Amino acid sequence: MYIGHKAHTASEQTSKLSREGIAISEREVERINKIISPLITKGQSISNILMSHKDNIMLDETTIYKYIKLGLFDAKTTDLLNVVKMKPRRKKAKLKIERAYLKNRSYRDFLKFIKNNPDTPIVQMDTVEGIKGYGESVILTIHFVEAELMLAFKREANTARSVTNIIDNLYKKLGHDEFVKLFPVILCDQGSEFSNPSAIEETSSGIKRTTVFYTDAGSPYQKGACENNHSLIRRVIPKGISLNPYSQEQINLLMNNINSYKRKKLNNRCAIETFNFFHKESILEKLGVSIIPHDDVTLNPNLFK
Q1: Which residue, of 34, 35, 219, 233, has the greatest Cβ tally within 10 A?
Q2: Are strands 211-214 and 185-188 parallel, antiparallel or unpaired?
Q3: What is the DSSP secondary structure assignment for residue 29, as one 8-state letter?
C-alpha cells in the first residue's frame, strides 16, 4: 500500500544518507592507492600525478588531499610537497564511515550473529592515543574477551592501512586455521582506521578469514571489555603523554605485565593462564606473549625505569 507521507520521509532519508561518509568504494581506494602512493613517496606532487594519470584517476586534487588526510592511502601528508604544517585544531570533525561499510556489520547485526552463534569467541579492537595530531604514534589494541588477553601494536599513524598490515602479519604468523579460530568475529568502533572492513575480513587473494562488526557511534560501552583493559595501560602511560618515544619492545613488555596480572573475574588467574586453558601454548609464542612472575608485575610508570 502506498502511503504518501511515509514514502516522502523514506526518500528524504535515502537522500541524506547518500551525502554522508566517503563517496568511494574500498576496491577503488586500493586501485588508486597503487597508483599515487609510490609516486608521492618519490617526491611527485598530486597535480603532477593527476596530469600523468588523468585517465586512471577519476578524482580531483582536493579530493585526493582529503583522502590522504583521512589515512585511506599509504602516502601521508608529510610526504606531500609544499604542504603547510599547521597545528591541528582543537575540535576536529569525526570521519563518518561510508554507509555501505556498515551494511550487515552494525551492532544490531553483531547481536543477531552472536544470538545465532552463542559459542563464538569475540575479539574487540580499538585504538589508544597519546597526543592527538599529525606525526603522533598510536597503539592498536586487540582484546580476546573470553580470556581477557590483550595484544598491542604501535603504529606511526592512525590509518586504515596500518591496521590492515597488522592483521596481515598476524595471519601470516598464525596460519589460516589458527587465525580463523582466534578471530572468528572482530568488533570495533567507527573510527577511520577501521574504515576498510573488507581488507580485514579477507586476504589479498580473497580468502575469508574473519567477520567485522561495528559498535554504534558514541557507544564505547558496547565493547566495554576492551575499554576496561585500557585503564591498565593508562596506569603506565597516562593520557596526554606522547607515544612516540615508546618502542614496540616496550609496548610488548607493558602488555606482558598486564596479561600476567591476576584478576578476580578470572578466578584469580591471569589472562595468559586463562588463554592457555582455551588454546595451545604455541599460539602465545607466535604472538610474542610471555608470562611475568607475579611478584615482578609492575603497572605504573616505573615499569620503564
Answers
A1: 233
A2: parallel
A3: H
- 77-128: pLDDT as tens digits: 777 765 544 455 555 444 444 457 788 899 999 999 999 999 999 999 999 9
Q: Check whether residue 287 and residue 214 sit in a common domain.
A: yes
As a whole number of angstroms, the distance between CA 123 and CA 220 comes to 15
Nearest to 131 by CA among 45, 237, 2, 15: 237
φ and ψ of 56, to 5 deg: -105, -25
Residue with cell 588454546: 279
Q: How many domains does the chain have?
A: 2
* Same-domain check for residues 205 and 236: yes
- Angle (nearest 5°) at CA 274 between 273 and 277: 90
Strands 138-144 and 122-129: antiparallel
Residues 6 or more apart whose CB falls under 8 angstroms from that of 225 comprise 124, 143, 145, 148
- Asked if 119 and 70 sit in the same domain, the reply is no
pLDDT per residue as tens digits for the range 159-217: 899 999 999 999 999 999 999 999 999 999 998 899 899 999 999 999 999 999 999 98
Give the structural domain span for 270.
99-304
pTM score = 0.70
How far is 223 from 227, CA to CA, in rounded Å? 7
Q: For residue 159, what is its C-alpha cell?
A: 590509518
